Amino acid sequence: MAQRVLVVDDDRTVSDVVCRYLEHAGYRVAHVSDGGSALAAVAADPPHLVVLDLMLPVVDGLEVCRRLRTRPDGVPIIMLTARGDEADRILGLQLGADDYLGKPFSPRELVLRVRSVLRRTGGEPVDAAPDVLVDDGLEVETGPRIARLHGRELVLTLREFDLLVHLMRHPARAFRRAELLERVWGWSFGDQSTVTVHVRRLREKVEVDPAQPRRIVTVWGVGYRYEPARA
């Protein structure tokens, strides 16, 4: 059965083009034009992915993103924004958006981004690593995409989960932000602050003290590494 995508955008021209391209790519597409309707649509019948405009009537895109991130199903979100301010993009990522595109954008690129996010959501393995990763009370099951810390299930976004898995699969290895952008996001180029934001959010969920991280540590002048617990 085709995967379902909810498009949330009040610009009729943009939404018509986006819906047409997604339908042509084989997705089942629904469209709403305001944030309140988006929240109601997701509550009634959760889609596999939401394409979410930042500037919306009734409830704006950032608030919609924040509320969707309180849901346990972790529906992936690709955010669209006409704003050029980097702070808006970073705020969207901080609230839990899995990806973003700035307007104007290529509809073909959006379809590729949707396909990439949904492929990861489907749990395709990145490599032949074990299905369960365990370290000092942190347990990650890559098949069902479940992470627990001392028995408590963590609410992670798609990218947060993939980032954690990638770092845990390569313990004590330092990665540059550009490497993580390519290996986790599948981007050969892009805004590397995306990685910084996701590392910050992930630390808030897996570290005892995010200000002094023990698991996901900064390697100054390089990037980040996962530091396993000492035996």
From TrEMBL:
GO terms for biological process: regulation of DNA-templated transcription. InterPro entries: CheY-like_superfamily (IPR011006), OmpR/PhoB-type_DNA-bd (IPR001867), Sig_transdc_resp-reg_C-effctor (IPR016032), Sig_transdc_resp-reg_receiver (IPR001789), WalR-like (IPR039420), WH-like_DNA-bd_sf (IPR036388). This is DNA-binding response regulator. The modification 4-aspartylphosphate is found at D53. GO terms for cellular component: cytosol; protein-DNA complex. GO terms for molecular function: phosphorelay response regulator activity; transcription cis-regulatory region binding. The lineage of its organism: Bacteria, Bacillati, Actinomycetota, Actinomycetes, Micromonosporales. Residues 130-228 bind DNA. SMART domains: REC (SM00448), Trans_reg_C (SM00862). SUPFAM superfamilies: C-terminal effector domain of the bipartite response regulators, CheY-like. Keywords: DNA-binding, Phosphoprotein, Transcription, Transcription regulation, Two-component regulatory system.
